[in-house]
């Protein structure tokens, strides 16, 4: 029989957070080996539960959640998102501007599918959250990566962005707070990005899924609050701030100058209708989450679990010879650098594979986030302090052996 091949549209699609190294980890687990997983921000897997009032509200409403909703979602949670936008100083948002989705991921793919023709370009950060690169490619577009500068706390390089804007550029993606680096962008930088979008008539796509996961008293500014005359799509949801990854409850807000975007918005509405609606139980969690006690503040405060784990991971990694890391101001990740003079890595996926095989620790290699060189990896600091100490200890042992093997 003739082989059945995957679509050619998938040729440039990659998502290494759940890639070949994870496949090897699954095989090892099936053999009875215990793996410490630092590869994905699956918060519930580390014993950090969602707020109880969200769970109870879903339970109470579940008997009435069997039917389809409006294609954009239920009115009450969309109204709650409007109120949240007002808290974030995003002006001019109505219920009709809010789309609920099966997590922000579905809406990101939908927004790019509605926008891109073959050959259109989207500016993406490097490193990025790889869904964006994959979704742009799957939509027929060309992902163009602008550099975020590690020496400047992973801030986007504005001059590099300017150099990469062409007549085919349609949008710029801003991930703030950032995954995988934990960077948090100041208002002054966001204003520069808005000005570039204004000058070149670009759509701003703002991923703000970690906007409450902030450390050291830092404050998040929504770029949509600064871009009233620029079409802006803001993506957010319950997965991270409310520890509810599996509920798949996210939203997209269309704000800014919308008059010239009527046809694009029609496209968004078409795609929203085609998937019928987002899952209803997940929608039912949104209003309660946004209006309830914000327990994330306890987790990120000094002495809170996430803050303690961030500090410990940073301290332990910084003590390893040849490893440097920018201390995250937000989110759940670190993106450590391995000095190429000490760790001459040519294939960082192979590096991640060898770490898994030797020490049973699963991380994601830096090139999996479209970073240009095989000299970084991403680590989640979600395990409790004892497990985190054990995991980084194993990484340290692996790196020590790596140095010995390479005469460093």
From TrEMBL:
Pfam families: Aminotran_1_2 (PF00155)
Keyword match Membrane: no
This protein's UniProt keywords: Aminotransferase, Pyridoxal phosphate, Transferase
Bilayer-spanning residue ranges: none
The Aminotransferase class I/classII large domain, residue ranges: 34-395
Keyword Transferase annotated: yes
CDD domains in alphabetical order: AAT_like (cd00609)
Cofactor: pyridoxal 5'-phosphate
EC class (word): transferase
InterPro entries per record: Ala_Aminotransferase, Aminotransferase_I/II_large, PyrdxlP-dep_Trfase, PyrdxlP-dep_Trfase_major, PyrdxlP-dep_Trfase_small
GO molecular function list: transaminase activity
EC number: 2.6.1.2
Record-stated family: Belongs to the class-I pyridoxal-phosphate-dependent aminotransferase family.
This protein's name: alanine transaminase
Lineage, uppermost ranks: Bacteria, Pseudomonadati, Pseudomonadota, Betaproteobacteria, Burkholderiales
């Amino acid at each position: 029989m003739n082989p059945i091949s995957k679509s050619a549209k998938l040729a440039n699609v990659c998502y290494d957070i759940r890639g070949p190294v994870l496949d090897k980890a699954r095989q090892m687990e099936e053999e009875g080996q215990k793996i410490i997983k630092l590869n994905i921000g699956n918060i519930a897997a580390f014993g950090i539960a969602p707020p109880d009032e969200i769970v109870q509200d879903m339970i109470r409403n579940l008997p009435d959640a069997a039917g389809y909703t409006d294609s954009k979602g239920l009115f009450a949670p969309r109204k709650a998102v409007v109120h949240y936008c007002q808290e974030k100083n995003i002006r001019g948002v109505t219920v009709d501007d809010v789309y609920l989705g099966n997590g922000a991921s579905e809406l990101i793919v939908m927004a790019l599918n509605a926008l891109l023709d073959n050959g259109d370009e989207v500016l993406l950060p490097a490193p990025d959250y790889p869904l964006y690169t994959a979704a742009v490619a799957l939509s027929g577009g060309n992902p163009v990566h602008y550099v975020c500068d590690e020496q400047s706390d992973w801030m986007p390089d504005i001059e590099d962005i300017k150099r990469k804007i062409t007549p085919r550029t349609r949008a710029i993606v801003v991930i703030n707070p950032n995954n995988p680096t934990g960077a948090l962008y100041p208002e002054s930088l966001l204003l520069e990005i808005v000005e570039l979008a204004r000058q070149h008539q670009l759509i701003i796509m703002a991923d703000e899924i970690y906007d409450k996961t902030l450390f050291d008293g830092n404050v998040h500014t929504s770029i949509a609050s600064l871009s009233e005359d620029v079409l802006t799509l803001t993506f957010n949801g319950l997965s991270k701030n409310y520890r509810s990854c599996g509920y798949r409850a996210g939203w997209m807000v269309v704000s800014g100058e919308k008059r010239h975007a009527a046809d694009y918005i029609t496209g968004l509405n078409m795609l929203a209708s085609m998937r019928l609606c987002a899952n209803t139980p997940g929608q039912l969690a949104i209003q309660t989450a946004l209006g309830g006690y914000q327990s994330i503040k306890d987790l990120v405060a000094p002495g809170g679990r996430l803050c303690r784990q961030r500090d410990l991971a940073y301290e332990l990694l910084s003590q390893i010879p040849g490893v440097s890391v920018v201390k995250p101001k937000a989110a759940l990740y670190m993106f450590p650098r391995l000095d190429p003079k000490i760790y001459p890595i040519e294939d960082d996926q192979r590096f991640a594979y060898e770490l898994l095989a030797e020490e049973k620790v699963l991380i994601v290699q830096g090139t999996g986030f479209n970073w240009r060189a095989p000299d970084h990896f991403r680590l989640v600091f979600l395990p409790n302090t004892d497990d985190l100490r054990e995991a980084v200890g194993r990484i340290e042992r692996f790196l020590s052996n790596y140095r010995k093997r390479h005469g460093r």
